[in-house]
Amino acid sequence: MNLIQIIMYVGIFVFAGTGALKARTHHMDIFGGLVIAFATAYGGGTIRDLLIGVHPVNWVNDYLALGLVVSATIIVSFFDSDQIRFKRTIFFTDAIGLGMFTAAGIEISINNNINDGYAVVMGVITATFGGLLADVLCREKPNLLKRGELYATVCAIGGVIYILLKHLGIEKNLGLFICVCIVVSIRILSKRKRIMLPEI
Amino acid sequence: MNLIQIIMYVGIFVFAGTGALKARTHHMDIFGGLVIAFATAYGGGTIRDLLIGVHPVNWVNDYLALGLVVSATIIVSFFDSDQIRFKRTIFFTDAIGLGMFTAAGIEISINNNINDGYAVVMGVITATFGGLLADVLCREKPNLLKRGELYATVCAIGGVIYILLKHLGIEKNLGLFICVCIVVSIRILSKRKRIMLPEI
Amino acid sequence: MNLIQIIMYVGIFVFAGTGALKARTHHMDIFGGLVIAFATAYGGGTIRDLLIGVHPVNWVNDYLALGLVVSATIIVSFFDSDQIRFKRTIFFTDAIGLGMFTAAGIEISINNNINDGYAVVMGVITATFGGLLADVLCREKPNLLKRGELYATVCAIGGVIYILLKHLGIEKNLGLFICVCIVVSIRILSKRKRIMLPEI
């Protein structure tokens, strides 16, 4: 397992944790928590795999995936959550995960003969549609679609830059690093300056 | 690109526009509008492709698809909507789209070894499940499932007739034209006469 | 058609009936009832097929599937439901269906090179995600994820035992029978004793 895979699994773990936390606010039981955690962590990649035709989808047969989601759910269930502090901590890890997932989604798409434009679309889907799926399952208004902080937009910007760097022949890990840095920076900037997309 | 493809893309454009309009009523931002527009326009065909095993799904790598949805969304966002008049205009274009999508869904299904009965089912799914998906994402009660105007039923009738004409050896474009005419007529008739399916 | 297939179709019929009943409580029309009945009966198997890469999904081209769902929906629509008595009757048939679907999902997964752990996951998905999908379409809070009677947990227990028996070389039909018995027993026991999973 190389460095990138390790960081990806860290991202999965963080996403699963935020999913489990959401399940807690909805007073679900442990099983419901597992489903929401799994949906948050792997939902985006699953939707991407279904759309581009990778089958079975990526996490099937990967016990580490199951183990990470189960551990994250159990940890969150023991957690005496001081939600506000927790949210501040999770903001950074989530932003890092966003960048990683976008880049990973783009790589996988390109390897499956998806063109550049749609590879960015698939990168954004990988990073953001897990949360969307979790919101639908929790019967919440999907956060992703509401007006608010830049989220999917940030992934799209990071993704476009990642693809450009790739065409410029920049080394893959460096490209990934730059993509993550850009995503994290814009996330922070847009939160601080309250930058939002206009309402449709 | 032949005439049928041109009309199909017009249908996609109209469906994307109605999706973007729905997003407006939910006060989403531009990104949310794009997602709902895309779901409305391509959701039905995507679900059909997943069920019958076409992969990648039809719109992947098609920049025109993306372009049409983006343009429709942008146009709707500039639109100072007088919704009632707009709805009247859209009723006809939507009905034409329904007929086109049903026939197209049936053709694609038959080309993928789906039998006649399920080809009609797939035609109805192609025409109507995009709106269903958009409703779920907007957390609306799916219009398609509620008692009201004939909608899916009209597609099913048009689809059955399209298949019958096909077996009678009627030329494809003529069959498509008849299917669309029937769908539009029954849509208008059922709206005027307030014909509904019985409640279950 | 062998005994197992017959019992499976009985399970499908029962699940479709519960779906149609749910549609009634939401005042849908006949078409909405059909969609919810189909989603309840075949939704879990469809999601499993999509995830493990079986295509087209299992029910496509199977007229018996369509016939069973349509009959169940029509019967429910004529039914003058005394819901409480109905619920008691359906509890047992539903529990039997749960066991059958879990075992069938596991068999299909193993035949598609899914490992034991994920085969159990797919068994649980087969048995329970149809109801989840129906809940999402009806805009209900998914029953499966809420704290309440053991449901998915029971399938997981039955599934693990089914896999263990399989590895011990127990004959398939006997394994299936034991799996169903265990699922039914724990369902009854957990309902009587009000056993629940802890909240996350």
UniProtKB/TrEMBL annotation, chains A, B, C:
The keyword Zinc does not apply. Keywords: Cell membrane, Membrane, Transmembrane, Transmembrane helix. Pfam families: Gly_transporter (PF03458). Belongs to the UPF0126 family. It comes from the Bacteria. The chain crosses the membrane at residues 6-23, 30-51, 63-79, 91-111, 117-138, 150-168, 174-190. This is Trimeric intracellular cation channel family protein.
